[in-house]
UniProtKB/TrEMBL annotation:
Transmembrane spans: 44-66, 73-91, 103-123, 135-157, 163-185
Signal peptide limits: none
Pfam families reported for this sequence: MarC (PF01914)
Species of provenance: Leptolyngbya iicbica LK
Cellular component GO terms held in the UniProt record: plasma membrane
Protein name as catalogued: UPF0056 membrane protein
Family the entry assigns: Belongs to the UPF0056 (MarC) family.
Keywords: Cell membrane, Membrane, Transmembrane, Transmembrane helix
Topology of the protein relative to the lipid bilayer: Multi-pass membrane protein
Domain of life: Bacteria
Localization, UniProt: Cell membrane
């Protein structure tokens, strides 16, 4: 996997357009300017979490004896469940509103730095540990795009309208279902070759 393809995969998994709908729905009672500050803070926290997992996740998993094929299969299953909630919102596990201003949960993690993004980073790092700098570059590039989209999301959400935002979320959900199935198949193939 090249740095460009890794960045594109991460961008699809991070799903800024699907998260745009969910985050703006969760923060609907917050004024747009404050909403942008919250989104920027949560994006930076999510980036920090993912960098930690990129560099420290595999040693931790090795300590517990988790193999890369297990990681691919479990990451694919989690991504599939999240994507299913995007395509069929009534099946979503996310709350529809928040009682207080979010801090880390649920925006930074699991919406932005979700299990599927973390699993993808761990798989990249395990597949070629010598390319950690490339994987960090791919993560930084994709998170930069995600951060800009999410920061502008109050404006985008307003322009798309509820129906347009829902259509974008479902389209991204379909793409993520395809990615999740491929991730699981790669894990099964790696297990059978093991």
């Amino acid at each position: 996997m090249t740095i460009i393809s890794a960045a594109i995969v991460l961008l699809l998994i991070l799903d800024p357009f699907g998260n745009l709908v969910t985050i703006n729905t969760l923060l609907s009672d917050v004024p747009p300017k404050k909403r942008q500050r919250i989104i920027l803070r949560e994006s930076l926290i999510a980036y920090g979490i993912m960098v930690l997992f990129l560099f420290g996740g595999n040693p931790l998993l090795s300590f517990f004896g988790v193999e890369s094929h297990t990681l691919r299969i479990s990451g694919g299953i989690i991504l599939f469940l999240i994507a299913l909630g995007m395509v069929f919102p009534s099946r979503s596990a996310m709350p529809s509103s928040l009682d207080s201003e979010p801090f880390i949960v649920p925006i930074a993690m699991p919406l932005i730095a979700g299990p599927s993004a973390i699993a993808a980073l761990l798989v990249m790092a395990k597949s070629d540990p010598q390319l950690l700098g490339n994987w960090l570059g791919a993560l930084t590039f994709s998170m930069g795009i995600v951060g800009v989209i999410l920061w502008a999301s109050p404006w985008i959400f307003q322009r798309l309208g509820p129906r347009g935002a829902l259509a974008v979320e479902r389209l991204m959900g379909m793409l993520l279902i395809i990615l999740s199935v491929q991730m699981m198949l790669d894990g099964v193939e790696q297990y059978l070759d093991f």
